[in-house]
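pasting for the record
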Amino acid sequence: MAGVVQASDEAGVFFGALGCAAALSFANLGAAYGTARSGIGVAHLAIISPSKIMRSIVPVVMAGILGIYGLIVAVIIQGNLQNSNYSDAEGYVHLGAGLSAGLAALAAGLAIGIVGDSSVRAYAKQERVFVAMILMLIFAEALGLYGLIIALLMNNQATSLSN
């Protein structure tokens, strides 16, 4: 029967599901922290210079994207769990892929939150800091993107293990 997990493959499915959960959970922790911390800076800016609010929400948006990275990896891993010949090795690789994407997004969220908060507060007082803020946020976001790329490559490797 398709979709039935064999008793010998339960460990692989467990670790694959753990990778799925890790990708989504850690990425959303990073996104939540980055959004909350940057949002504090935006609230501070709104008091000082309300006309700059729309340009100052860039860190909040960038932090939210990190959650999408985790969701992408979790959906891909979950799709592979449906495979009837899912092996332990695939589960281990998917765990690594989930941790790669999730922890990279968590680190990026921490960086975006801290940089976003301080940069938005500085932007409230000095407009020339805006370009530097965007560049710092791009490099912080890239950390999460690196984890996503590695997770996708690891998923391809896990798929080749079942063939």
